[in-house]
């Protein structure tokens, strides 16, 4: 009986060691990966500028598209994705805190800036007194729109205003007496046809087939609003994270951006 027990214990030990070794190898050597991105320019960026470089490193890459800003992080946290690309720093940190997730950025990528568009005026100088401008009705994007107007010297802000939380009440001087019309961000591309000016976030502009370079003024984008490749914090030092970073930092990636993503604002590390 004692001999039988010892043999069984030895067999179980070998099995456990083999299982642990196999699990570690599969985690370390994982080559079939899934990257999530919102439909449009960022799924295109993964497909055209990131996926080819990873494939050269031996990965098999599936690109999964999403139509909202909730599921890509949920899928990442649940392990259905290995990384995603769609969000800026403020959104990532807020979402992670609200949902009890641990998310970290791998690297910042070129991002479509918000712009001021018009079908009635050809330049900022042409804007008439009392013109109506549609702006996003959410505080984060509204602050971005007001900051563009500051850069365009169409408004000034009260001293001490935080540029990340600007609202209409923070305006000191409204040079052209602009009339602000807050509406849902997704409707801003269509608003170009019905109002004098419209502040359109880059992703919505591209989804509506607008040319970023047609904007009267493009955003001087703060780093917090640039999109980044994001992974679960536990994986941010993995070999995959290092390989994604290497691909994005390569000349081939920037060449695709210059050719296929005109008007996208590059992060500081690329300049």
Automatic annotation (TrEMBL):
One of its GO terms (cellular component) is membrane. Its main location: membrane. A lipid is attached at residue 20 (S-diacylglycerol cysteine). The keyword Signal applies. Keywords: Lipoprotein, Membrane, Palmitate, Signal. It comes from the Bacteria. Residues 1-18 form the signal peptide. Coiled coil: none annotated. It is found in: Membrane. It is a lipid-anchor. Belongs to the nlpA lipoprotein family. This is Lipoprotein. It comes from [Bacillus] enclensis.
């Amino acid at each position: 009986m004692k001999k039988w027990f010892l043999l069984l214990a030895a067999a179980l030990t070998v099995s456990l060691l083999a299982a642990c070794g196999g699990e570690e190898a599969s985690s370390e050597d994982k080559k079939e990966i899934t990257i999530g991105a919102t439909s449009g320019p960022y799924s295109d960026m993964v497909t055209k500028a990131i996926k080819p470089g990873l494939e050269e490193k031996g990965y098999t890459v599936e690109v999964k598209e999403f139509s909202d800003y909730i599921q890509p992080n949920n899928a990442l946290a649940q392990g259905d994705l290995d990384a995603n690309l769609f969000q800026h720093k403020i959104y990532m940190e807020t979402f992670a805190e609200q949902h009890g997730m641990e998310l970290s950025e791998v690297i910042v990528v070129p991002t479509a800036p918000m712009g001021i568009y018009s079908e009635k005026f050809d330049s900022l100088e042409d804007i008439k007194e009392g013109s109506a401008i549609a702006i996003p009705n959410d505080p984060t994007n509204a602050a971005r729109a007001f900051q563009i107007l500051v850069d365009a010297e169409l408004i000034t802000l009260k001293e001490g205003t935080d540029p990340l939380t600007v609202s209409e009440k923070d305006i000191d001087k409204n040079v052209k007496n602009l009339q602000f019309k807050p509406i849902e961000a997704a409707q801003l591309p269509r608003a170009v046809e019905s109002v004098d000016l419209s502040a359109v976030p880059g992703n919505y502009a591209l989804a509506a087939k607008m040319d970023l370079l047609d904007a009267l003024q493009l955003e001087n984008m703060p780093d917090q609003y640039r999109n980044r490749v994001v992974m679960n914090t536990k994986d941010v030092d993995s070999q995959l994270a290092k390989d994604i970073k290497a691909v994005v930092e390569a000349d081939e990636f920037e060449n695709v951006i210059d050719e296929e993503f005109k008007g996208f604002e590059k992060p500081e590390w690329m300049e």
